[in-house]
Amino acid sequence: MKKFSKIIGIFILMSIFLVGCNSNLDKKSTSLKEVNISSIKDNNYFTTTPKEELENKAFLVENSSDQYIVFYKMNIDKENISCDVKNSILQINVKTSGNAENTYAYKIINPKEKNYESINLIKDGEEVAFSSVINVD
Questions:
Q1: pTM of the model
Q2: How confident is the model at residue 120 (pLDDT cuts 50, 70, 90)?
Q3: Which of 48, 78, 60 has its CA nearest to residue 128?
Q4: Dist CA 93 CA 69 (whole Å)
């Protein structure tokens, strides 16, 4: 009887551990992937707006199936871009450094269903707004 209780206890502990591991995997389901900017920059918004009005700004570009973040000539450090989902909010963290000559685009990757309701952009520790949300449908 004593061995049986130990076995049951071990199974209960293993179940708790496995459930905890699975929930951590779900939290990591959203990520950012750098993509080629040329297809996004060819969008009407980026071709008709004067370049001076676009510089040093971040844009959220959406279509029916995908979302992209465009950092238009912002001095972001490509090595310090991350995202995390907390309380149904996708928080994108960027740090700035270097020159502002390049434009970068990142696709928001959701291997499963979209697990956030809104997006916050955090630049150097402070929340900033997107300059514009562009729908390309």
A1: 0.73
A2: very high
A3: 60
A4: 12
**Exposure class string for 81-117: b at 16+ Cβ within 10 A, else e:** bebebeeeebbbebbeeeeeeebbbbbbebeeeeebe
DSSP assigned state of 56: T
Q: How many CA atoms lie within 13 A of 66 on its CB side?
A: 15
Q: How confident is the model at residue 79 (pLDDT cuts 50, 70, 90)?
A: confident
CB atoms under 10 Å from CB of 70, counted, come to 26
Spatial distance between the Cα atoms of 116 and 80, rounded to a whole number of angstroms: 22
pLDDT digits (tens, 9 = 90+) for 25-57: 444 578 888 888 877 766 788 888 888 888 889
